[in-house]
């Protein structure tokens, strides 16, 4: 499909630079198959779902994966996006032309790395020196890797260490937050439990590739970056049991959805999964493992807007986004939410 079919105009004032407070006070647009659009708050979620439904969260934890350093006298910025070994991370590097294989980059605070090789996508494999776990090095030298549409408008600060982390964050390894889950609070989780709505977690370490623009003119020519994920056998069994008993599996975020769909077979059963996925979902895709999606509002011509268009229909999502823009909904990582029930 032509990528420009997924374009729309977004006024800059609709881009959120800070999350709602409290988190579950964010607005939420309900989009249902065959129904109209309706405006709600995230705190209304227990009344919008049914007893027996199950929300699936991503428990990945964002690491401070944004680094600034020097290669000799040249300034170099690096955003880690995927672990490839115990001490090796692939990174998107600013001023990459100044970095050659074998160069040492000094990121300060005693953190150095050797540029090991250059990938086909222009990324550089960084081999961190020393014996300390890389996560400890990043805590010293790194900052939270805010999306470009926020970082270009303000500096990252100490608040972002909490704001850009979900309440479920446990497994370190993401360089971008599963932002749909930023809206959840302990109070909302208690209300969901009281309403008979179940919850499960899986792990997908979100990579910085999620922010990369689609440069191809046709979706067939776009290559997704792989991300590592895991669904354990017990979780897969419980999710299958939800659907077998008539409940719906609702993915909280496109990261949860993509991992479930990677693990689901043509028979609709979700299998255990442990490995990389580069699934790219566009209109025409037949969903196998999920029955709905809670997600934030995405960028024009992005793979994530293509995904929601695949779930609900492109024209319907164009209309939903037009409604959201006119109604003053806040977009992107720190923005408002939508609940999509086909």
UniProtKB/TrEMBL annotation:
Main location: cytoplasm
EC number: 2.4.99.17
Molecular function per GO: S-adenosylmethionine:tRNA ribosyltransferase-isomerase activity
GO BP term, pick one: tRNA queuosine(34) biosynthetic process
Annotated GO CC locations: cytoplasm
Subcellular compartments: Cytoplasm
Key words, A-Z: Cytoplasm, Glycosyltransferase, Isomerase, Queuosine biosynthesis, S-adenosyl-L-methionine, Transferase
UniProt entry tagged with the keyword Transferase: yes
Pathway: tRNA modification; tRNA-queuosine biosynthesis
Similarity annotation: Belongs to the QueA family.
Known function: Transfers and isomerizes the ribose moiety from AdoMet to the 7-aminomethyl group of 7-deazaguanine (preQ1-tRNA) to give epoxyqueuosine (oQ-tRNA).
Name of the molecule in the record: S-adenosylmethionine:tRNA ribosyltransferase-isomerase
Taxonomic lineage from the root: Bacteria, Pseudomonadati, Pseudomonadota, Alphaproteobacteria, Sphingomonadales
Gene of this entry: queA
């Amino acid at each position: 499909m032509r990528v420009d079919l997924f374009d729309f105009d977004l006024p800059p004032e609709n881009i959120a630079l800070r999350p709602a407070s409290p988190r579950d006070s964010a607005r939420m647009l309900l989009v249902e198959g065959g129904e109209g659009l309706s405006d709600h708050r995230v705190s209304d979620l227990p009344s919008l779902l049914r007893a027996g439904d199950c929300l699936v969260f991503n428990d990945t934890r964002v690491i401070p994966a944004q680094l600034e350093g020097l290669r000799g006298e040249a300034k170099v910025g690096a955003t880690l996006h995927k672990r490839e070994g115990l001490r090796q991370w692939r990174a998107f590097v600013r001023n990459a032309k100044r970095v050659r294989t074998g160069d040492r980059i000094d990121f300060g605070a005693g953190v150095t790395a050797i540029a090991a090789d250059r990938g086909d996508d222009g990324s550089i494999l960084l081999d961190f020196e020393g014996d300390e776990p890389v996560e400890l090095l990043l805590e010293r030298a790194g900052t939270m890797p805010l999306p470009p549409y926020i970082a270009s408008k303000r500096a990252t600060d100490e608040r972002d260490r909490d704001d850009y982390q979900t309440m479920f964050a446990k497994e370190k390894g993401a360089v971008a937050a599963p932002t749909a889950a930023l809206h959840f609070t302990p109070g909302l989780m208690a209300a969901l439990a009281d309403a008979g709505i179940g919850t499960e977690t899986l792990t997908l370490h979100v990579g910085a590739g999620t922010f990369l623009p689609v440069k191809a003119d046709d979706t067939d020519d776009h290559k997704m970056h792989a991300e590592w994920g895991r669904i354990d056998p017990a979780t897969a069994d419980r999710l299958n049991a939800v659907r077998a008993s008539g409940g719906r599996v609702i993915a909280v975020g496109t990261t949860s959805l993509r991992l479930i769909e990677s693990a689901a077979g043509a028979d609709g059963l979700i299998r255990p999964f442990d490995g990389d996925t580069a699934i790219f979902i566009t209109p025409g895709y037949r969903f196998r493992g999920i029955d709905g999606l809670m997600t934030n509002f995405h960028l024009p011509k992005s793979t994530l807007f293509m995904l929601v268009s695949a779930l609900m229909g492109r024209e319907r999502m164009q209309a939903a986004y037009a409604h959201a823009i006119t109604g003053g909904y806040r977009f992107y990582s720190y923005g408002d939410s939508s609940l999509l029930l086909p």
